[in-house]
Write a structure and sequence with these properties.
Distance between the termini: 54 Å
Number of strands: 14
CATH architecture of the largest domain: 2-Layer Sandwich
Structural class: alpha+beta
Shape: elongated
Helix content: 40-55%
CATH class of the largest domain: Alpha Beta
Length: 391
């Protein structure tokens, strides 16, 4: 007796078996825009069975006004294949943010029918961006060291001389000496912030409850710079601990939430910051000091409904001295990228008007990684205080 599953999906033909073996979603669209056929990867992508897919029109599955629909019309009119890259097919039902490369071609033996292949953007894109962020952070280490030794000492002398002059100066001249002191202090503060990039000491890491970190950051924000902003939380309560340094994670998310608060400050009662956590298996990355590739299944997001990041700044957003603020130093996000990179994680930004997402992918805590960290710290001859655990 055949099972219900076998009844729903008969044994595929050779051509169907080949399509089902492909890791990329493949659909066949009829002349009326209905889905005529699809492989198993399509079911996983849209999270819908093939039987249900065949009852749908493609425009019911993709976002309104999707470039895919225009591509299909173009292929029909030109009767030649067309490719389009980095198209967002995300919908609220699928969780949003599903960037794919599109390959659309006509079926010569079936007039009016179109074949569409979707290729999700490779995790290599994220890794390449993260490696760029790490290199950019490291590129200022030598500069930071030079500034610390060659600039702070002369600035101290300049400030001291200005204070001596201030004792005998007139009221008008005191304004100038005070300006000299204030500007010297500002430069010293900037140099102090840059010195953080030169800190290559091993990070003391352990199991951290990310929800305790986010709750702490939220309380700090609501008692200060985000007092009048609405927070929305979408947490996965079953999430395992993250392998991290709790204090540094607080620094990362406090910076991201502060940036989000500054982005929505002009929206008044419509201002909103969303904090989300989720488990996303399948992401693996090579981490310095680790022989095996480390899984990055933990996803933490800070989202806001502000005006968004200018498109020309997105590729270099985590580089030092890149900022959208008139009074910003451009070091905050560079420091965030360095901390996340030191933890073996990935940070990326996706932005459009009314929807900006900073996504952090991190490794989860495991006993094997804990022992590897301890061995590496011992071999470096440095002892660190025990990491703070989750509350």
């Amino acid at each position: 007796m055949s099972s219900a599953a076998e009844h729903r999906r008969p044994v595929p033909s050779d051509s169907e078996a080949i399509l089902d073996a492909l890791p990329n979603p493949v659909l066949m669209i009829g002349p009326d825009g209905k889905i005529v056929g699809a492989n198993m990867a399509t079911e996983a992508f849209f999270e819908i069975s093939t039987q249900f897919l065949k009852r749908q029109s493609l425009k019911e599955l993709v976002p309104f006004g999707s470039p895919l629909l225009a591509l299909i019309d173009q292929v029909r009119s030109s009767n030649s294949p067309v490719n389009e890259y980095k198209v967002d097919l995300g919908t609220p039902r699928m969780g949003g943010d599903r960037q794919v490369d599109l390959h659309v071609a006509p079926m010569t033996d079936r007039p009016g029918h179109i074949v569409v292949m979707l290729q999700e953007r490779s995790i290599a894109d994220k890794m390449d961006r993260q490696l760029t962020h790490r290199s950019a952070a490291r590129s200022v280490i030598a500069l930071a060291a030079m500034l610390a030794h060659e600039i702070k000492n002369p600035l101290s002398g300049i400030r001291g001389a200005a204070q001596l002059l201030e004792q005998q100066a007139s009221s008008e001249d005191r304004m100038l000496t005070r300006l000299i002191c204030d500007e010297a202090d500002r430069i010293v503060t900037l140099v102090d912030r840059m010195e953080v990039f030169g800190d290559d000491r091993p990070v003391a890491r352990g199991p951290v409850n990310i929800h305790s970190v986010l709750d702490h950051v939220k309380r700090l924000a609501q008692s200060g710079f985000a007092r009048n902003i609405r927070f929305v939380e979408d947490y996965d309560p079953s999430l395992p601990p993250v392998l991290a340094n709790q204090d540094q994670l607080i620094q990362v998310f406090l910076n991201l939430v502060k940036n989000a608060a500054e982005a929505v400050v002009d929206l008044g009662t419509d201002a909103e910051i969303q904090l989300t956590t989720a488990f996303r298996p399948g992401v693996r990355l090579s981490v310095p000091g680790q022989k095996s590739r480390v899984s990055l299944p933990l996803e933490f997001c800070v989202k806001d409904n502000g005006p968004g990041v200018p498109e020309d700044l997105l590729p270099n957003l985590f580089d030092p001295f890149v900022t959208t603020k008139q009074t910003g130093s451009g070091l905050g996000l560079a420091l965030v990228a360095k901390i996340v990179g030191d933890h073996g994680g990935i940070i990326e930004c996706e932005s459009q008007p009314r929807k900006t997402t900073f996504r952090v992918l991190m490794p989860m805590y495991s006993t094997s990684i804990k022992h590897a960290d301890r061995s590496r710290d011992d071999s470096a001859g440095k002892s660190s205080p025990a990491p703070q655990g989750a509350k």
